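Annotated sample (chain length 193).
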Amino acid sequence: MKQEIEIELKNLVIEAEFNELASAFSLTDESFKKQTNYYFDTETFALKEKGCALRIRHKEDHYTFTLKRPHKDGLMESHENLSDADAVRLIDGEPITTSDMIRFLADTFGIDPGQLICLGSLVTTRAEQTYKSGLLVFDHSAYLGIEDYELEYEVSERKQGEKEFKQLLDTFHIPQRKTPNKIERFFKRKQIT
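Output written by the structure step:
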């Protein structure tokens, strides 16, 4: 399993703001690629209670199993590539035992592979653009009957990133909005539906 610290600044935007930004960065329809996140937890939300999020991302014919957990500088991400067969089994509710991630969940959180359930999916069309000291990410997501637009800024140093991100938002007259991450928005919507 690969591990990395993720520092990600986020801001929800409205469709008109998203389109203006995409145009300003010369993004075209071809710039955007589709990815699908399948979210997992136990019936009692054992991972959510610990501030963790577990997903399988399907992108460009590859499946990546990712666990995000709290870290003092952002989030600690653990990644594992999955075979198509193992990914489909998990999404379909069949436990697997050959995964390092599954073993880590069992050893760290006491989660039996049979306890994991797929809670649903979120489909995102995403474009990425290098910007100043980081990577600017344009996301249009659809899940549980709604759509939203989000701008993310992935950086290696938080203070500099926050300054650059605020300047960008100010330049385009976009207010800073409280922006829960995708799985939080997914969970909130799932509780409503």
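Annotation: The chain has a mean pLDDT of 94.
Annotation: The radius of gyration is 17 Å.
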